[in-house]
Amino acid sequence: MASVVTTTLLLGLAAFLSYRFRGSKNINPHRLPLPPGPKPEIIIGNAREIPAHSSWLQYTDWRETFGDIIHLEALGTHIIVLNSYKAARELLDLRVAYADRPVRIMDCELMGMGRTAFLSPYSEAWKSYSKHPGPFTTICDCAFCLEALILWLRINYLSFNLAGFTGKSLLMFAYGIAVNSVQDELIATVENLNDGSIRLAHPGAAFVDLVPILKHVPSWFPGAGFKRTAKAFKAELDDAVQRPFDHVKAELAAGTAVPSFTSNCLQDGSYSDYYTIWSAGSMYFAGTDTTLAALKTFFLAMALYPDVQKRAQVEVDRVTKSSALPTLEDRDSMPYIACLLKELQRWIPVAPMNLPHRLMESDYYEGTLSNGPPSYFLPEGSIVLANVWAITQDEANYKDQKRF
User: Fold this and answer.
1) Exposure check for the chain: N or C terminus, fewer CB within 10 A?
2) How many angstroms separate the CA atoms of 300 and 139, rounded?
3) Does 323 reside within a domain?
4) Using CA atoms, how far apart are residues 367 and 331, in angstroms rounded to an integer?
5) d(Cα 23, Cα 18) in Å, to the nearest integer?
6) Segment 265-269 mean pLDDT
């Protein structure tokens, strides 16, 4: 048994070294330096310095030493961290070469999460998600959804569960599924799936991502437990997105479907089943934890700053005449509410680190060859991360950044 494990590790190391030296031929014709960063160790690079949890705090600390753009290397993989709004906007918003997602073998390929809109690589499917967002606004403005949710909240007020409320809200928007045991089961399933995927969210969380050839190892092979785990996750994921989709189709056939994102897509007829299934699933998977976190931040801010809550309520009452809930049409009439929502995202951002991007071709940062000498070389295949926490807590832009 020991010899088998040793052989496996040696094969993995050989594959990694081959991959690393092949990738080291990244063309750098101007011989520019990489962005500054912590000194890497031999072979493993900065792998031991990359935090497994709350990485944004470490990256923010490193900004004081290395600046707004930081380079790390983990077992041959280049990682670029952007610590300023200027760098993040210049690279991620304005340059198409950063539109791809990194090839994360474990969660995207083996676990099947690469089919979601938020982890999909740059492909025809990704373009479809981007160009055809689907009938979102009609669902967001459905009065029946809001009224049903308010009714549920009032009925369950004494035992109010914010996580349950968020899950039920998103399932109603995505699938029009009413409050029942089936919905509760779906919520529990998706919560389990989210917990499993979050553990693999940071670069290098799974060894197979660092040594991709290991994905071909049979699931029965010693040390290949990750493949069995991924297979079970993928089966549960497929069921979690297919079951509510089939439910909506059956409801439409019976003439009892409640308006929802999925029912609207199916009735429209211009969206494929694949698009509808994974768009609705992405809406729910991406929305549960983030919406819950945003609501918690809102309640915390209103409790700590009652004067803000009072001003917001006055504006809502003025616009709605205290007789109805605000709608999307009222947005332009409520500038204070708009600023409040933006400040919530700045004060305690829901996602302190953005989802990783992958650089599709070598690039430069700080100037271009046409308007001046560039400062840094960014290798093709680099994982690029925007440190949202560092950007929103930057003292240069926010004098009292910890105050709401």
Assistant:
1) N
2) 28
3) yes
4) 39
5) 9
6) 88
Residue 328 is part of which domain span?
Answer: 305-347
Q: Quick one: pLDDT band at residue 148, thresholds 50, 70, 90? A: low
CB atoms within 10 A of CB 4: 11
- Span 265-277, mean pLDDT? 88
Closest CA to 290 of 206, 204, 194, 376: 194
The residue with tokens 């009925």 is 155
Query: In this structure, is residue 208 part of a structural domain?
Result: no
Confidence band (pLDDT; 50, 70, 90) for 24?
very low
User: Taking residues 237-262, what's their average pLDDT?
Assistant: 91
**Position 123 in a domain:** no
Other beta carbons less than 10 A from residue 98's beta carbon: 23
User: Is 136 domain-assigned?
Assistant: no
pLDDT given at position 159: 45
Q: How many domains does the chain have?
A: 1
How does DSSP classify residue 100?
Answer: B
Amino acid at 230: A
- Reported as a pLDDT band with limits 50, 70 and 90, residue 135 is low
